[in-house]
């Protein structure tokens, strides 16, 4: 069975909405900084830090893409964006909240889960969002 984690963009987040292309840019930034770290260490850290290729399909255009593993330890992680209706506790009115959904499909490895947790924490920290982990716990990366 597939499991999901969510990075929710709350009112205290840096951004209120995000597009799929912006999420891809954040993954590109992640690859760049890990590559620079590897250069400083004299080790090809970028390959170990991001052992995936970003794959887009016509079916998921502008809604989701997946990360395809480059080795046997890593298979697939699905990343998508969406919006949900929430009730604003201050005003009592309904409003839209944007989220990033990270899905581990059935057949995902322990390596996929570890990398997915790492990517979720990176995205939540960068966007100052609210991270709902695969195990149901919540981590807050925004100022409260």
Write a brief caption for the model:
This protein has helices at 20-41, 45-49, 110-127; strands spanning 3-8, 52-55, 64-69, 76-87, 94-104, 130-132, 138-140. The longest helix is centred in the N-terminal third of the chain and has 22 residues, at 20-41. It is of the alpha+beta class.
Task: Characterise the protein shown here.
The protein is of the alpha+beta class. It has one domain: 2-Layer Sandwich (TATA-Binding Protein), CATH 3.30.310. Helices cover 31% and strands 31% of the residues. It has a 7-stranded antiparallel β-sheet, with helices on one face. The longest helix is centred in the first third of the chain and has 22 residues. The radius of gyration is 16 Å and the shape is globular.
What are the key terms here?
single chain, 144 residues, alpha+beta, TATA-Binding Protein, 7-stranded antiparallel β-sheet, 3 helices, 7 strands, 31% strand
Average pLDDT level: 91
Q: What is the number of domains?
A: 1
Low-confidence parts: none
What helical percentage do the residues reach?
25-40%
| Arrangement of strands in the largest sheet | 2-3-4-5-1-6-7
Tally of DSSP β-strands: 7
Give the helices and strands as they follow along the chain: EHHEEEEHEE
């Amino acid at each position: 069975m597939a499991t999901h984690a969510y990075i929710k963009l709350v009112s205290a987040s840096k951004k209120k909405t995000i597009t799929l292309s912006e999420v891809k840019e954040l993954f590109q930034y992640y690859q760049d900084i890990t590559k620079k770290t590897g250069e400083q260490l004299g080790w090809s850290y970028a390959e170990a830090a991001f052992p995936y290729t970003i794959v887009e399909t016509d079916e998921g255009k502008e809604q989701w893409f997946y990360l395809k593993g480059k080795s046997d330890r890593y298979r697939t992680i699905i990343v998508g964006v969406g919006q949900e209706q929430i009730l604003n506790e201050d005003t009592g009115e309904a409003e839209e909240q944007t989220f990033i959904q990270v899905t581990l499909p059935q057949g995902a490895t322990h390596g996929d889960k570890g990398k997915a947790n790492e990517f979720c924490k990176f995205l939540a920290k960068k966007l100052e969002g609210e991270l709902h982990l695969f195990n149901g716990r919540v981590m807050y990366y925004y100022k409260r």
